[in-house]
Amino acid sequence: MNIFEHYKDIFIESINIKNIDKKIKNKIAVEIPKQKIFGDISFNAPLILGSFLKKSPLVLAEDFKKNIISNNNDFEKIEVVKPGFVNFTFKKSILLKFLSKIQNNFGKSNNIIKKKINIEFVSANPTGPLHIGHCRGAIFGDILCNFLKYYGHSVTKEYYINDYGNQINIFLKSIYFRAIEILKKNKFPDDQGLYPGEYIVDIANEILRTIDVGKYDSFKDVKSTLAPVAIKLSMAIIKNDLKIMGIKHDIFISESDIVKENILSKSIKKLKQEGAITKGVLPKPKGDTEDWEPREQLLFKSTNYGDDVDRALQKSDNTWTYFANDIAYHYHKLKRGYDYYINILGADHSGYIKRLSSAVKALNKNVNFEIKISQIVKLYKSGKPYRMSKRAGDFILAKDLIDAVGKDAVRFMMVYRSSQSPLDFDFDVVNDKSKENPIFYVQYACARLNSLFQKSKFNIDKEIKDAELQLLNSSQEINLIKKILQSPKIVNLCNSNFEVHYIPFYLYELSSEFHSFWNLGKENDDFKIIEHSNENLSKSRLYLLQKLYIVLKTGLNILSVDIPKKM
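Below the sequence we write its predicted structure tokens.
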């Protein structure tokens, strides 16, 4: 049972105001007050309805308080606070009632409308291993998919293989010249902007096992033979990197296949039908423009759909732009009939949001489409920027990061902050065995709980049926119950915002409450759990900790982080 949804329904019914606009009604919420002194839950309806009803929010709040007092007996205290919130403190009996309702699906909404959702993430060019920038977006995308599946949606994890265009040409050239270097001892050229990483040497050696590169006179001659083998090898590296991170995509869509299937012409035709294409001259770009000349070209009228400028679809040589191929890919994606589409892009693609969103809107004005940006990751050690080895050439491998601190730490900490905010990844923190390390503290809570139940006569996964919950009276026990019951709000925040950082942060706070309670038992015999002289009280505390374990386990399963039995 979701305590927040339950009381929101009761509160809205108590307002007894008909014909509330749906948009206004959707803003009404039951929240968690920022400070404990303001109670357990807070209702914002008076603030939301003040302008709608042309009444003072404080007057509305007082009226609402009276209605609740006369119709509901679940609260120990109800207070009106400026500028128009109504704060509630639950009676202990109500907290215990909701505690008893916690099961393995705890936190899910009762009113969910199940959706078919496509989430495209990572989609790194198949030109080498994944780096730490890819790592954050990959883990964010995977955990978001896990969460939405848990919530009840049908989710497809998609990877778009950008295997067409100039970056692939550079990649293939790099492999070719490394192969020639291996075969003929020719110096690898350093003046052509080629990829210098050691992985290129590894791929070149693999290539030489199947292709006699030396028999071809030039790169141009071997390119078509080299391309499919090299891209397959590169994707094998990427898929292995994803596997190390605990990620497996459902679908891989190739850009070259999109091109071969002539989907671009179909998407252009669709845009023409919508009146979204024209011929025109783009304004002079900023920066070094000595070689720039105005010329008429095919343009997508993206300004009609919220973009700042119209976008070119063809280059000066009449070949299609990268953007045009992206339009074709999204046309192909939209045809597959999902209810919601989410793209997760790296920080370097933030300037791409408006144009891509405009294109999708032009292809289907009714589509639910959202772009999430995964911001940059900075590594720190001893308070200073930390530079790991760069075996890939000019970037740090995701694999190296996981080898250094472990998959669990990387998955947990990569989503410990909102994807929209830059992330400082501190090696000292993730290697620390203390409260300062969130992932350690959460896993340690699980280990402590398992150890505790192993010493007791009860199974941690089998609910204690006859616990006398009214015996739970201490402020520490009540605080732990209240923190456990916040889980549905965390779940709803993740669902409404398509963000998952709420989960690890909440798990850390929840674990901190537990560790504080645990440590009391070391200092005071009255707070011991299984060694307490009152067997019934011990049983009730174990029941409480079973419910705690359910919430911790649920959260860690969504994160795909291990739940240790001992540490």
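The domain at 3-90 is CATH 3.30.1360.70 (Gyrase A; domain 2).
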